[in-house]
Amino acid sequence: MKIDLAVIGQGAVSPAGVGLDALxxxxxxxxxxxxxxxxxxxxxxxxxxxxxxxxxxxQREARLRRASSMTFFLIEAAEQALAGISPSDRAETGLIVxxxxxxxxxxRRFFEGIVKQGQKTxxxxxxxxxVFNSPVSHVASVLGLNGAAYALCGDETAWVAALQTASIWxxxxxxxxxxxxxxxxxxxxxxxxxxxxxWLRRENSDHGFLASEGAAGILVSRARPENARMITTARDGLxxxxxxxxxxxxxxxxxxxxxxxPCYPSAxxxxxxxxxxxxxxxxxxxxxxxxxxxxxxxxxxxxWHTLRALNRVSSELPCLLLPxxxxxxxxxxxxxxxxx
Amino acid sequence: xxxxxxLGENFPIxxxxxxxxxxxxTPLDLFDTTGCRCHHAxxxxxxxxxxxxxxxxCRLARASRLAIPAxxxxxxxxxxxxxxxxxxxxxxxxxxxxxxxxxxxxxxxxRRVLARDGSHRFSQASRYLPQQQVLDVQQALGFAGHSVIIxxxxxxxxxxxxxxxxLIATGAADCVLTGGFEALTELVFVGFxxxxxxxTDRCRPFDLNRSGLLLGEAAAFLVLESAExxxxxxxxxxxxxxxxxxxxxxxxxxxxxxxxxALVEVMHAAASQARIAPAQIRYINAHGTATAVxxxxxxxxxxxxxxxxxGSTRISSTKAAIGHTLGAAGAVEALFAIAALxxxxxxxxxxxxxxxxxxxxxLVGAKESSSDMEHVMSVNLGFGGSNAALVFxxxxxx
Lengths: 340, 398
Fold this sequence. Notes:
The longest helix of chain A is centred in the middle third of the chain and has 15 residues, at 158-172. Chain A is 31% helix and 22% strand. Chain A folds into two domains: 2-221, 3-Layer(aba) Sandwich (Peroxisomal Thiolase, Chain A, domain 1), CATH 3.40.47; 229-338, no CATH class. Chain A has 340 residues and is α+β, with helices and mostly antiparallel strands. With 398 residues, chain B is an alpha/beta fold. Chain B has a single domain (2-393), classed as Thiolase/Chalcone synthase (Peroxisomal Thiolase, Chain A, domain 1), CATH 3.40.47. The two termini of chain B are 14 Å apart. At the A-B interface, helix 5, helix 6, strand 6, helix 7 and helix 8 of A face helix 4, helix 5, helix 6, strand 5 and helix 7 of B.
């Protein structure tokens, strides 16, 4: 789908720190975290430091007193992306957030309470915060984003769907600009899940990924300011259930684009990495250039990769492909361009 | 259109049961509710899944067992299903709503993890995610293509349909399968129960003695296509989707703004897109959860939106019959509104004893019908302040 979105704001929160500079240049430090249901040694995990002073202003907001950690990642990244946008323009801004697991920590705690203490003690304070769109509502409310708001879910490709939806809203004139975000939060339960799938990496190993968390967002519009970076095309819908189907989908995904376009590799240390390597073997790859590894945080990772790739686009590299490797449903692809 | 609801395994059965005044509330036996205040819900009987292997069926979430037959019925009724029960369109955009996906798998995974007996499996964790139910439907019916999963709480179903319309209006698609699905799960049931939002009595929307909602489960889908696409393949439209509005109410995470201003705004937005005046809407399928706060706000909003037409516009909440089906609600209720538009028969407001005064003349009575309906509306509200309204209009070619 041609989406032709001009990127007019960017924001990120990652285990590397708060802000775009940290996302692009800083190396995060893994922390050991034990899985819930296993006796094995703790796993290295990349966490966002919620004690970072940047979060203090949000932690004082009355509306956010019970909000999930993911809400804080989102709102900080959103505020960065909205820098310089006036309150009246914010009122005409839509918000679309892509999630994979949503408010996982509260959901786990809520259900664990039911299992361990019984249904009678279930927490009415926790339950509303488990709903996918709760963080979206909090962010829109606190930042005064009065346009439409959607919570989308899926694997990494929900980020692609979010960009496509933003383009649709702008073409329909529903909003003036759209803040498109991806966010995930870590909970130890994911270690039990990923460990079962043999997706996790041990220290001093190259196999598997590090579980991670964070958020990122871009503010997009149809207007094209000078020197804006563009996301011109978004492709999804290449579904798979098996590795064989994923392999065929990967081959097809890259074969549909101009073979001269360089590709920004993004399947880092996950099981789709070998498929990416094979599918891009005849393409120029954009050098990783010491890009710090941020772990796997699904829709947040897709957003991080997009920000990093957007920051590689320049007059020397005017156009590139960014594959979006969904780990649980489908594959997608973005085409990024420097405004001429 | 296709639906699996607590009233029946397909849309015609559900519709006829609804008009007959059947209330699907029954004691809940899908999971233990011993520690809950409420012990009943509107659960659906799972239809037999033809053309799907027994091995595959074992791997399906309950939500998929609801969604696959409902989607298949929608494609069949649109003439888009081949003799093998597969979609004739191999690329078919899919705009879907849910709030809990395959949560029963997630619950099972967590129980096993907490038991620390090593019996948890990755498949349980991966298959609880909503995209897996979407993939189940895509693979069972043999189509692929763009999909979007909207999780805007209880307004999601209306959002999914509205988004499908947006895809078509912008030329991004010419035919979309759209709707929502939701299965009853312990986490969600206990969640609403601990909020004291569920009723231990009958579900009585817009009644002075209402005491809370009835949870339900359902899946409902419709095929939305451009007029040109329908004409090209010789399909006769059931109706036209002419208006869609959606807003976010910032008042509270779980409660609407008391004066209903955001809901009024969304109804005006939908009517404005449909280029009609509020009084031209002859039937509204209301959200009507039967909670104290929701129905009071909704009543005020209808008064403000319809003004003098409140009373001549007929209103009912079908949640009294099928329960609140959360992510599926906007879809299944849109189907009921379309059926009302097409047949002239209006879904009665069940379980009504003492209507709240401002709605007394507007609520649909038993066996009511209307012969002059050109436009109907379906309205939904959700946690997080999600509001959505859809307007369906009689199609010139239907």
